[in-house]
UniProtKB/TrEMBL annotation:
It comes from Adhaeribacter aerolatus. This is Endoribonuclease YbeY. GO terms for biological process: rRNA processing. Single strand-specific metallo-endoribonuclease involved in late-stage 70S ribosome quality control and in maturation of the 3' terminus of the 16S rRNA. Zn(2+) binds at residues 111, 115, 121. One of its GO terms (cellular component) is cytoplasm. The gene is ybeY. Its EC number is 3.1.-.-. It is an enzyme of class 3 (hydrolase). HAMAP family: Endoribonucl_YbeY. Coiled coil: none annotated. Belongs to the endoribonuclease YbeY family. Keywords: Cytoplasm, Endonuclease, Hydrolase, Metal-binding, Nuclease, Ribosome biogenesis, rRNA processing, Zinc.
Length: 143
C-alpha cells in the first residue's frame, strides 16, 4: 500500500499534509509510470531555516531553497529517499505565482520524485523538460 511506503512528517513547522492517502497514491502512480520500484519515500515538511541548515551542512550551499532531495537507494531504479520541503518557501512561491498553496506544494513534491526518476534541471532545456514532466504529474491528480 502506498501509505506504508510513503510517509509525511513535519520538522520545525506546524503543518500536516491534507489528503495524505490520495497524495501517496498519486505519488505512487508517478513512480509506477517509470521502471522504478518504490521502497521508501519520506517527505519532511520544514521551515526555511531548517532547510537552510541542511543545505549548508550537506550541500555547502548558503541559500534558501524550496526542496532538497536525498537519494538513499543503493541500487539503480529503486526509490528510497528523504525529501525535505520548506513550507515557508512554497507559501511564498505560491503567493508570488498567484496560485493555490497546495498546487505549488504538489508541484514541488512531484519535482522531488522526478529527480529520483532521473530528471535533471541544470540547464534551461532540462528545466523545460522538468516543468513539462511536473505538469504531466499534476494532471494525474485525482483529488
Amino acid at each position: 500500500m502506498p501509505d506504508e511506503l510513503i510517509e509525511f512528517v513535519s520538522e520545525d513547522v506546524d503543518f500536516t499534509l491534507p489528503n495524505q492517502e490520495p497524495v501517496a497514491a498519486w505519488l505512487t502512480t508517478i513512480i509506477q509510470n517509470h521502471p522504478f520500484q518504490l521502497q521508501n519515500l519520506t517527505y519532511i515538511f520544514c521551515s526555511d531555516e531548517y532547510l537552510l541548515e541542511i543545505n549548508q551542512e550537506y550541500l555547502d550551499h548558503d541559500t534558501y531553497t524550496d526542496i532538497i532531495t536525498f537519494n538513499n537507494a543503493d541500487e539503480p531504479e529503486i526509490i528510497e529517499s528523504d525529501i525535505f520541503i520548506s513550507i515557508d518557501r512554497v507559501k511564498e512561491n505560491a503567493a508570488n505565482l498567484n496560485i493555490p498553496f497546495l498546487d505549488e506544494l504538489h508541484r514541488v513534491m512531484a519535482h522531488g520524485v522526478l529527480h529520483l526518476l532521473g530528471y535533471d534541471d541544470k540547464s534551461p532545456e532540462l528545466k523545460q523538460l522538468m516543468r513539462t514532466a511536473e505538469d504531466n504529474c499534476l494532471s494525474l491528480r485525482k483529488f
